[in-house]
Amino acid sequence: MDNKLHFEVCRKKSHYFLEVSPTDDIEELKRQLEGITAIPVKNMWLWKLDKDGNKLEALSNHVTFQEYGYNQRNAMAQRPALIGLRVINEESELKIDHLPKFEGIARNGDSNASTPSST
In whole angstroms, how far apart are CA 97 and each of 13, 25, 118? Predict the structure, then answer.
């Protein structure tokens, strides 16, 4: 069984798909992001988001994902949990441009996505 947690980290028009272990802390996800974006960990502010992309709470570096309530049911590969990324000293607030809907693709629990017709 895959015990990894899956996250979609969103910042403006960028969406990063990452995985961590439940016992990893928030700083581990920031280190992964630093490797991709070259943004220093100390300049990242991560937010727990609801399924609509609204801020719920700021995430602290040394708290684990498990302690924040993430598990294999709410952070799975098919429906990754959403986290917002704000870069300190570059942005005054969290800004996320949502990805367009693709026909036949369900994202983050969207069960209303249409299925492509077969010919």
Answer: 5, 26, 32
Collapsing DSSP to helix, strand or coil, 57 comes out as: strand
| Contact of 61 with 13, CB cutoff 8 Å | no
Amino acid identity of residue 55, one-letter, is K
| pLDDT over threshold 70, residue 26 | yes
Structure-token pair, residue 55:
């801020």
Residue 37 CA to residue 69 CA, distance in Å, equals 26
Report the amino acid identity of residue 70. Y
Q: How far is CA 113 from CA 9, 19, 91, 110, in A?
A: 22, 25, 33, 6
pLDDT tens, residue by residue, 68-109: 999 999 999 999 999 999 998 876 667 776 666 656 555 555
- Mind listing the domains of the chain with CATH numbers? 1-119 (3.10.20.90)
